[in-house]
Predict the structure.
Amino acid sequence: MADRLLTCEEIDEGKRIVESSPDCLLTPLLKDVHLLGMQVGGASDGDGRKVHLKLENMQTTGSFKIRGVTSQMTHLNKQENNDKEKKRKVVTMSAGNYGKAFAFACRKHQLDGTVAMPTTAPESREKIIKEFGCNVVRVPSHDLLKKVEELQAEGSTFLHPFDDINIIAGYASVGMEMVAQLGRKPDVVVVCCGGGGFLAGVSAGLRRIGCTDTKIYGVEPETANSMQRSKQQNSACQMPKAHSFAAGLAPQFAGTICYNHVRAYVEDIVVVDEGQIASATRHLCERGLFVEPSGAAAFAAVMFDKVAHIGGDVVIIITGGNVSPSELAHVFEKASS
C-alpha cells in the first residue's frame, strides 16, 4: 500500500472534504509580487516572470496543516470501531504546526489527544497545543516514534503527521485551489518540504487537474535534505542528524508514501541554507507578511535563484506563520546581508 499513489477519486474527495469544512479557509493568492517591491530572484520586468504567493500562513491555525488534519479526522470518524474508548484516544508527533492543527481538531471532535514533541521545539509551540486541551510529551527527536508506539500500545490511534494517504489528499486541495485563483496553469510551483506530505499533495492535485507541464520543485534546508537524498537514492531515506532552526522542515526521515508521489510528480528538490531562509523570512515580514522560517523556505529558493531556468507564472506557497516576536528577532539576526 505504501507504494501506491492517490487515485483521482481520493483527490476529489479530499478537495470536497476541505471545501465543505468551516475550519478550512480559501486563502489568498497574492499576484505578481514584484510590483509590491518583493525580491524574486533574477526576475525583472522584461523577463516575463510573474511570481505569485499562495498565502497558507493565513489559514486556520496559521498553516496549511488544518487541511490534512480535517481529511484525516473525517476518515477517522468513518472507521468502524466498536471500542469507543480506544477511538477517543489519538496520538501524533510534531514540532509545532501539525500539532497545533491536530489539537484544534481534537478539541472540536472531543478526542483525547497527545502530541509527542521533540525537545528542540520552541516552548511556545507546546503552550499553544496545551491551550487546546491536548497532552504534550517531550522526548528527543530520535525517540518520537518509540513514544508513539508506547501510546498506541495503551490504546491510542496514531495519526501520522505527513506520511498518510488521507492527509496528502487534503493537501491536494491547495494545488487545485491556486490554479483556479490564478485563472491559468502555472509554469512553475515551488513548495517547502519537510517529511514530504504537503509537496506530495500539492503535486498530486496539480496533476489531477491537468497541469502536466507545470514544473514542481520542493525546497529543503541543506541540513535536513531527506527528500533530496531520497530522490538521489531512489528510496525514502532516514536522516537521523537532520536539524534546522526551521524546525517544521527537519524530520528525521522522508515519508515513504510522500516519496512515491515526489518521485512521480516533482521535477527536483533544491536546498537553501539557514541564512537564506532567515533573509527570506525577514524580507516577507518587512513587507507585511507574518511568516515563520519553515513557511519562507520556498520563497528563499526563488529569492536566491536556487531554482534554475524558471519563467512565466511562478507560484510560491507560503506555508505558515506560527512564530513569536522573540523567535523572529532571533531569525533576523541570522539573515544574510
Remarks:
- Strands lie at 29-30, 50-55, 89-93, 112-118, 135-139, 157-158, 188-192, 215-221, 268-272, 313-318.
- The two ends are 47 Å apart (CA to CA).
- The first strand starts at residue 29 and ends at 30.
